[in-house]
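Listing S7. Sequence submitted for prediction.
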Amino acid sequence: MKRPTAHAANSQKTHALQNVGVVGAGAWGTALANMTALSGKNTVIWAREDDVVTAINKTHENTVFLSGHTLHKDLRATTDMASLNMSDVILIVSPAQHLRTAAKALKQHINPAAPILICSKGIEVSTGKFMSDVLSEEISNPVGVLSGPTFAAEVVQNLPCALTLAVADENLALSLVRSLGMPNFRPYTSTDIIGAQVGGAIKNILAIATGIVVGLGLGENARAAVITRGLAEIVRFGLAFGAKRETLMGLSGLGDLMLTCSSTQSRNMSLGKAIGEGRSLSDIMQERNSVAEGAHTVDIVYKTSKDRGISMPIVCAVYKILKEGQDAQKVTNDLLSRPFIKEAD
């Protein structure tokens, strides 16, 4: 009998994975962990907060970050990263600006062959690096990205959703999809790791912009215009870094943009709406226990677009409002006064 290749054996092993580790017990991490537990996987979720761990283990509810939703009875929470050492795959859901720290803490506790799927959305502000680059600098495990149009509150209710699962090794991506996919949780494979990250990072900034439009009372036509022209900015930025246009027009790009800019369930859109209504960024952030990543990511996307000559007027407008304290109505009026151009430009 012909002995299977190491690659084939690895793919078979990944397809048969039964142990899932989730790093980060915010709303999205909790929803993902609940989904994998629902699919019959042995799932352990790591959290920093003792009260989150206690609530999940004792009452089957994340009362801090995803209250009001009953979690699977077999989902187990821990504050000890060593408990993830048996994981066949890791979903890392730490906020983007803390992903490097989480990776450094994680690497000594996990199987070096276990794939790690990045489920955070953003770009590291201090370096300008994508999450995949940050993770690869800290851990030698295979790296992938899981991203798409998803609200945690709907995923935890097992309502249907679809996402992009991007891994450079197409066979590994297929194997992971077969292991993690369910009828109501549908990952679609890709090898475009950069493209799968660009949409998720920049749509958070654009969601703030659409929220500002709503807060200023500018109407649905204006919101549709921001979404559509915002997509053009995502495409320009992504192509500059080698992303594929079809990825940017897919679930992790256009799909995520549409969802995030259409509902105040989005932390970023609700933040923008409050700013449009006249509230200050500092006051809004002090009231929240969850992260609006767009408020951080706008720093580095604005800087990168200027350095590389990428036209991103909506991102620039959000930067002026959030980081320079300019008046939202004035910045919006300036944006509307820009010279007319071809739509394809």
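Caption to Listing S7: primary sequence and predicted structure tokens for the chain studied. The radius of gyration is 20 Å. The first strand starts at residue 19 and ends at 23.
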